[in-house]
């Protein structure tokens, strides 16, 4: 909201340039709270969370089906008596970008003044104990509710066994009272086939995104955007991109951390050491078989990081 407030810029010439007494702005007591809230909103909206490393088309579709959907006009939804809510599901093995995407969406919600709520397993159990599960799905203004790894409520009942959580969770997802201007965002490390068909049906889940191991191009982008210049200048980036085929974004981040730790200890950027420690910690032999002297197949088949299916 707009408001009028008078600001006074106070300058102390005799102290100008001193680090002890900087210039400052003053506002009346009456306007202070309004100005403080306004400045905080400006700060939130100007701060941009780095976009997730994924194909541009996929990132755009993720935004359009979440934040973009919430920002769209509600007139048509009201005209045809359709609740403005949507369910989105992010699936895939750990470390391939689901959390990165959620952090970005959180930042986008803050930037656009939308509500964000993160529901954990502990939150759900506490709400269930107090018979208040319905409150987890409620927002006081348009926004996103993230259910992070709540597999117990969405697993296939035929294979994992039925429980009261299934019926409670699905009933609240539908909502006795139509919920408006809400996105229900779910993440799971399970395969799509392992999730309950009743959960995945249209009306509950409208968009499914599968996060797979990053392709060569996406690994290159991750190293270029997330590894510091000082690191990239001291290692053979092209070789690293080649030999990390099949690794996740989380694996690349672990390798970066190992490089930094070695630098702290020895003041050298030792890729071979980081690569060896990385594989030793996983009990593999790959570190001895692959190095900068190995030959790599640049034409190896890569996979698309995300596939989005609209139900």
Can you describe what's shown?
- By secondary structure, the protein is of the alpha/beta class.
- The protein has helices spanning 29-46, 56-64, 67-71, 75-79, 98-111, 121-129, 157-160, 164-174, 197-200, 216-226, 229-232, 237-243, 249-266, 271-280, 286-289; strands at 7-10, 24-27, 85-91, 115-119, 143-148, 182-188, 207-211, 306-310.
- The strands form two sheets. It has a six-stranded mixed β-sheet. Strands 1-2 form a two-stranded antiparallel ribbon.
- Helix 1 runs antiparallel to helix 5 (98-111) and helix 13 packs across helix 14 (271-280).
What is the ordering of alpha helices and beta strands?
A: EEHHHHEHEHEHHEHEHHHHHHE
Query: What Rg is obtained from the alpha carbons, in whole angstroms?
Result: 25 Å
Give the helix/strand class.
Answer: alpha/beta
Distance between the termini: 38 Å
Strand order of the largest sheet: 4-5-6-3-7-8
Strand tally, please?
8
Report the principal-axis shape. Answer: globular
Strand content of the residues, in percent? 5-15%
**How many helix segments?**
15
List keywords for this structure.
311 residues; alpha/beta; six-stranded mixed β-sheet; two-stranded antiparallel ribbon; 15 helices; 43% helix; globular; disordered C terminus
Topology:
Layout: E1 7-10, E2 24-27, H1 29-46, H2 56-64, H3 67-71, H4 75-79, E3 85-91, H5 98-111, E4 115-119, H6 121-129, E5 143-148, H7 157-160, H8 164-174, E6 182-188, H9 197-200, E7 207-211, H10 216-226, H11 229-232, H12 237-243, H13 249-266, H14 271-280, H15 286-289, E8 306-310
Parallel strand pairs: 3-6, 3-7, 4-5, 5-6
Antiparallel strand pairs: 1-2, 7-8
Helix pairs in contact: 1-5, 10-12, 13-14
């Amino acid at each position: 909201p707009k408001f009028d407030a008078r600001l006074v810029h106070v300058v102390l010439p005799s102290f100008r340039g001193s680090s002890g007494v900087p210039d400052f702005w003053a506002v009346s007591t009456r306007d202070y709270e309004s100005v403080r809230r306004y400045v905080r909103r400006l700060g939130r909206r100007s701060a941009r969370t780095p976009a997730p490393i994924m194909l541009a088309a996929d990132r755009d579709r993720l935004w359009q089906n979440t934040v973009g959907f919430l920002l769209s006009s509600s007139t048509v939804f009201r005209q045809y008596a359709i609740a403005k809510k949507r369910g989105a599901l992010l699936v895939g093995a750990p470390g391939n970008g689901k959390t990165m995407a959620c952090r970005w969406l959180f930042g986008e919600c803050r930037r656009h003044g939308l509500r964000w709520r993160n529901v954990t397993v502990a939150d759900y159990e506490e709400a269930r104990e107090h018979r208040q599960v319905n409150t987890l799905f409620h927002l006081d203004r348009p926004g996103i509710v993230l259910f992070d790894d709540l597999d117990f409520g969405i697993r296939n009942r035929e294979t994992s066994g039925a429980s009261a959580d299934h019926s409670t969770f699905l009933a609240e997802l539908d909502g006795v009272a139509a919920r408006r201007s809400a996105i229900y965002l779910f993440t799971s490390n399970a395969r799509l086939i392992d999730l309950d068909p009743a959960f995945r049906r249209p009306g509950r889940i409208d968009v499914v995104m599968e996060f797979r191991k990053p392709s060569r191009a996406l690994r290159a982008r991750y190293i270029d955007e997330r590894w510091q210049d000082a690191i990239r200048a001291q290692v053979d980036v092209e070789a690293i991109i080649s030999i990390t085929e099949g690794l996740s974004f989380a694996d690349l981040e672990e390798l970066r951390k190992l490089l930094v730790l070695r630098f702290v200890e020895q003041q050298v950027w030792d890729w071979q050491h980081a690569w060896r420690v990385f594989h030793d910690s996983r009990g593999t032999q790959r570190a001895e078989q692959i190095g900068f002297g190995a030959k790599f197949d640049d034409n190896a088949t890569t996979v698309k990081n995300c596939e989005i299916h609209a139900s």
